[in-house]
Amino acid sequence: MLKILVPTDFSSEAENALNFAVKLASTTDAHIEVLNVVEYNVGIASDPVGIAVPTTYETEFAELMKAGAKQKMDYFLKQFDVEMTSTIQIGNPYFEISERIIESGTQLVIMGTKGASGIREFLIGSNAEKVVRKAKCPVITLAEPTEPSDIKNIVFATNITDICDDLVAHVKQLQDIFHATIHLLRINTPNNFKRDEVTLTGLENMATRFMLKNYTINIYNDIYEDQGILTFAERIGANMIAMGTHGRKGIGHLLSGSLAEDIVNHAKRPIWTYHINN
Fold it and tell me: What was the pLDDT predicted at 16?
């Protein structure tokens, strides 16, 4: 069974993410957990050894906030006629989401973004960006309402040298979930240029090594990698972009440190990311 975690702040973007998850679960053997994190910093007081501890007032106030979040969660989930579980935590969204991924054995996170304003707008600032960079499982981000059944062409952007077994294994699972065609893509830029013959050989060897099926090999030239990926995806009518991330600041991947973040911030289509262990 595929375990899906959907973090929510009850916004329309979060609703888009949950809609996507529900429809995806209807075609796969999947279970959905919806998580809301109430960001509240307890622990202003200190014990005799200097460790921050919550006061009685803080604890009561935090529980009151949690009760309010529970009401919002119940109302939010009423519109979805499907069985799922919900969890409410108090604390730092990034840490709570990361902990929940590990505790529940989450295999896929689906979350909403606010389009051009970027992932920083979601779930209290940069916490969601950290989730995308550091999550121990694949993450799908959505900026607009999307039908899972429409995802038939997935662009897998790679510089070839960063490819690892774990990343490709997860991309193949992604392909199986959506029964999609994978479009292997390397972007040639003035600062990162390789002859087509070299790139084609590298992509072909990669496809052979990992026994890929139902795929195409592509090279696209652009001044910037992020714009090249977005433009190529637009031209072929791709429904999703898949990328790996090393978890560097700004979701660094390929050669530019902020590439995946730029893609997430500006793409109209869903973005799938997976953290590559260094």
Answer: 93
- Contact present, 199 and 186 (Cβ < 8 Å): yes
126 exposure class (CB count in 10 Å sphere: 0-12, 13-18, 19+): middle
Lowest mean pLDDT among 47-56, 57-66, 91-100, 210-219: 47-56
Cα-Cα-Cα-Cα dihedral sign, residues 235, 271, 168, 134: positive
Q: Kindly report, residue by residue over 152-171, the tens digit of the pLDDT.
A: 999 999 988 778 899 999 99
Domains defined along the chain, listed by start: 2-142 (3.40.50.620), 151-275 (3.40.50.620)
The rounded radius of gyration (Å) of the Cα atoms in the chain is 20
Average pLDDT across the chain, whole number: 83
3-state secondary structure 161-191: CCCCHHHHHHHHHHHHHHCCEEEEEEEEECC
244's enclosing H/E stretch is: strand 240-245
Residue 125, pLDDT score: 39
3-class SS shares of the chain: helix, strand, coil, % to 5: 40, 25, 35
In order of 5, 6, 77, the CA distances from 103 in angstroms are 11, 15, 22
